[in-house]
Design a protein that fits this description.
single chain; about 325 residues; alpha/beta; Rossmann fold; eight-stranded mixed sheet; 10 strands; about 35% helix; globular
């Protein structure tokens, strides 16, 4: 099988393509990574890795899954419903409930493998998947430990604007736009998507530039990572709080990993404050938000291994 990832294949792991269905009947496409010396009679710790918002399993999530498999875990990186190689229509939908459900479905899959100890299943959520994985863990007690990296709370930023900067008038004006867009699309109009611009220049804001330099340039570009979602998807996010019960994850542990220079660090810092013990916040010196997608020299794999080894036992 051709290797279609943005990173090199390790000779220390076994790789296979898998799929499983969620409770909506949507098939989820995933890459599974196992240690090279995988023993079919043994029981392994299982890790589920979610992609950055707008990304696919062939990018950062795959890097994490492969690296953790080198360290003895069985790990999967999956595409969210409606995106990548996963099923679901219409395409490029961003579903706040669906993306959380995909984590539940991944736990269903992992916990029914004969080689997985179903009492030793953890998750790693990168960027937007950080919020989705925490939301899943709030109600899915089969998830025994959660690590987030460069976490984004997509429900918060969609509802309140960047850094909670929207006024009530700003929010209502956008809701009016969404309502009008739904009417247009219901009547047969072209579906509008939001995402990265086709090009950037010196006037482009630094956050957009950071994402563009990953998703639209050789460093992280992948043909299935459109970095666009339908505009009308935002309405669901504006009516949902992903982390409303984050304290209920306790006594299961949470590890938050953020870059010192990440524009997104306020999401993890606030979630850390709201979470109950046991919890830990790790700040990576000099790292930006996107650095922790693929900069293996900065990603704290030793810390992640220590966290899951200690808490999946």
């Amino acid at each position: 099988m051709d290797w279609d990832k943005t990173f090199a294949k390790s000779d220390k792991v076994l790789h296979e393509k898998i799929n499983f269905h969620n409770r909506f009947g949507i098939y989820i496409s995933a890459d599974m990574y196992k240690p090279k010396d995988f023993d079919t009679t043994a029981k392994y710790r299982g890790l589920i890795v979610g992609t950055p918002y707008g990304g696919v399993k062939e990018q950062g999530a795959g890097i994490y899954a492969q690296e953790m498999a080198e360290r003895g875990y069985v790990a999967i990186a999956f595409d969210e419903s409606y995106n990548g190689e996963s099923g679901g229509m219409p395409r490029q939908t961003s579903s706040v409930e669906g993306f959380v459900e995909d984590f539940h479905a991944a736990v269903d899959f992992m916990g029914t493998r004969p080689y997985i100890d179903r009492d030793k299943i953890g998750v790693i959520g990168i960027c937007g998947s950080g919020g989705f994985s925490l939301s899943a863990a709030q109600v899915d007690r089969r998830i025994k430990a959660v690590a987030t990296v460069s976490m984004y709370d997509m429900s918060r930023v969609k509802a309140n604007g960047w850094m909670d900067s929207w006024s009530v008038e700003d929010r209502n004006a956008y809701l009016d736009q969404l309502g009008e867009e739904r009417w247009k699309e219901f009547a047969g109009g072209e579906v509008k998507t939001l995402g990265l611009p086709p090009t950037i220049d010196e006037n482009t804001d630094p956050i957009t530039t950071e994402f563009y330099e990953y998703y639209k340039m050789p460093r992280g570009e992948h043909p299935r990572a459109t970095s666009h979602f339908t505009m009308t998807s935002d309405m669901g996010f504006m009516n949902y709080k992903l982390l409303d019960r984050i304290d209920s994850i306790s006594p299961r542990p949470i590890l938050f990993v953020i870059g010192e220079n990440a524009h997104s660090r306020y999401f993890s810092e606030d979630a850390y404050k709201a979470a109950a013990e046991p919890k830990e916040l790790v700040v990576i010196p000099g790292a930006t938000h996107v650095d922790l997608y693929d900069r293996v020299d900065l990603i704290p794999f030793d810390k992640l291994d220590e966290f899951f080894t200690s808490n999946l036992k």
